[in-house]
Design a protein that fits this description.
single chain; 138 residues; mainly alpha; Four Helix Bundle (Hemerythrin (Met), subunit A); 6 helices; 79% helix
Amino acid sequence: MSRIKDKIIEIEKFLEELETIIPNSIEEYSSSLEKKAACERYIEKIVESATDLSFLIIKAKKFRIPQDDADAFSILLENKIIDDKIAASLKNAKGMRNIIAHQYGKVDDEIVFHSITEEIVDDMNAFLDSIEKADINQ
């Protein structure tokens, strides 16, 4: 199960690093190409790691095989590893990650800034707490 633990540590590290670079305001975020690029990259890394972690848990627990990344979060919900709120947050984060990574349309700075200042850290910590409470590493 050390791959699961390693992935948890990776997510925690990315979250800590993101928190050190988050701008103080939407104006600072919008006007700094470097801050925007760095924050967007951290969102990608965090969400990809959360998706990887979901797949590792599914494999370790021998749950059904997911049809896609979003289905992995549904499987964790079905098996009571996470609750509805966390599942929805993870699916939303995955959607944002896809918009950023694949440049589907214009990336909305206000939405990304809101996510990095109000959502992603709390959502990912809730996800990690749920995994810890489910005692996946045993």
